[in-house]
Amino acid sequence: MQITEGFSLDLTTTWAFIIAFAVYVYVILDGFDLGLGMLFAIEPDRKNRDVMMNSVAPVWDGNETWLVLGGGGLFAAFPLAYALILPALYVPITAMLLALIFRGVAFEFRWRTERWRGVWDISFIAGSTVASFSQGVALGAFLQGINVDEAARAYGGGWYDWLTPFSLTVGAAVVVGYMLLGATWLVMKTEGPLQERMRSRAWAFGLITMAFIGVVSLWTPFLQDGYFARWFEGWGVALSIAVAAVVVVIAVLMFLSLRVHHHEYRPFVLALALFAVCFVGLGICVFPYIVPTQITIYEAAAPAASQIFMLVGASVLIPLILIYTAYAYWVFRGKIDPNEGYH
């Protein structure tokens, strides 16, 4: 029993990192995909829209695999957290899932009709926007805290607790951040006038994203006492300065790369790095809590035997998913031919 209990601590931390990894991979893979959908709204030319959609057509529908892995892993490895977080975020999560479904339908149907193509384009834009905004709202509501009924070990808040100025601000930040990812992705995948327009738009969305990062970063420590202590007491001061410095350096390098025409891959890679640093900052803010700042990962964890059983499956499935995802992106690397259609 002592061995099992000691091992369960390692298992719990491992599962926390697996879920965090799955969420991050989903954010970066589906983020530029959703951002591309929102960029449709400011790219009215039909041929350019076709090129934009063709850039993700071979890979887009595999991105939600990571969302399923993150949600399923939370349910299996941290059932108490799942039972507390999901009721608190039912509205934004339901809106996100419906938007993703509607967006997927629009993606396929716009190629099958001429008469209704404009309608499906609008649906694609709307689905991408609602899904992105809902993800940001859910993140903001999670960070600001969830009302837990300690006696019942259940969600004790109301239907609209998620709706606050902070959650709406984070929702807007995610929308703009995804559009930055989408624009840098198109810089990498396209050529000519479309690529140049995306360079200028990446500049604009990059500046707005940095402004949102600053606002959210300064706002977050005041949401919970534990956050403030983590960032502004003791070693946290040095940590906050280091994280801020890394964000600024990456942003400067990204903006410089957008000014150099032969740098086509670098802006996208640096935009992903910017998201990675923000994600690490989020982890530093909440760890080891899985329901900030009330329930730790250890309090919410499933029994060790269950975690071991699931870890065996995850150790096989995750490498396989990574391999076929990497292979798909490798096969469809390079520029998009404007004369090739999606079938």
Radius of gyration: 21 Å
Record field, number of beta strands: 4
Helix content range of the residues, please? over 70%
- What gap, in angstroms, lies between the N and C termini? 57 Å
The number of distinct helices, counting runs of at least 4 residues, comes to 13
| Pattern of helices and strands | HHHHHHEEHHHHHEEHH
Lateral strand order in the biggest sheet = 1-2
The residue-averaged pLDDT reads 83
Q: Low-confidence parts lasting 5 or more residues at pLDDT below 50?
A: 1-9
**Count of domain modules:** 1
Q: Could you describe the largest sheet, including whether it forms a barrel? A: 2 strands, antiparallel
SSE class = mainly alpha
Description:
It is a single chain. This protein is an all-alpha fold. It contains 13 helices and four strands. The protein has helices at residues 2-39, 46-54, 64-77, 79-88, 90-109, 117-144, 165-189, 192-219, 225-232, 235-259, 266-286, 297-300, 304-331, and strands at 148-149, 154-155, 289-291, 295-296. The strands form two sheets. Strands 1-2 form a two-stranded antiparallel sheet. A two-stranded antiparallel sheet has the order 3-4. Strand 1 and strand 2 (154-155) form a beta hairpin. The radius of gyration is 21 Å and the shape is globular. The relative contact order is 0.14.
